[in-house]
Amino acid sequence: MTLTPLPAFDDNYIWMLHDDQNALVVDPGDATVVQNALAQKGLRLDTILITHHHADHTGGVAALRERTGVRVFGPASEPMPEPLQRLSAGDEVQAMGLRFQVLEVPGHTAGHIAFYAPEWQGKPLLFCGDTPFSGGCGRLFEGTPAQMHDSLTQLAALPDNTRVCCTHEYTLANLRFAQTVEPGNTDLTQYTHHCQQLRQQNQPTLPSSIGLEKQINPFLRTQVPAVVQTALGREPSQSSDAVHIFATLREWKNQFR
Q1: Catalytic residue set
Q2: Whether 34 contacts 46, CB under 8 Å
Q3: What is the pTM of this model?
């Protein structure tokens, strides 16, 4: 089975899994991108997974369903393009021979979910929408810092070799911020160089992995002394509690250029 990020809009990825006959796609904001990929490879669309309600993740669902009759799965408590099967934490989806566990990861939106397959080609697989990005995390449009911190902590507890399929190519911008937060992190320096080379070749920086993100992503490193020190230097009145450190970093990143 093949895992492919389909570029859409300016910086989105629609993830596709296929076995040369059937396909699953995640967060298809653009139906044309998916239809072109299906036609090019001669695939039948079997399943759509949706992580949250934003239009760049759901905009192509209705057209794809009308054209193919595809099954659609999405979060229980968000506005969704009906009809679909709604999912909460603890639910499972069987698709493409895989068992996806549903994780609730609020923060970016109030009802955001992720899909976790414990076993695919020897490693776990995570479709996480806009919760973590490589080197960063989603903006808090509807959730609180505590919710997003808890969601990221939940994902960080997954096995280190879990492939992390984020849905935006924000990596280099995120890494510029991460290096400002933690300039002495040699893992971060090496990863930044690697990602720069990939983008120079017009290659995606994704998927990442849980283990890598724990080494380089400041939003997963809110208890690392160097990150705490930098955050407190920016907001000296803040507590060193991990949620306060996360909130300081997230607000800083909102303004970072």
Answers
A1: 52, 54, 56-57, 108, 130, 168
A2: no
A3: 0.97
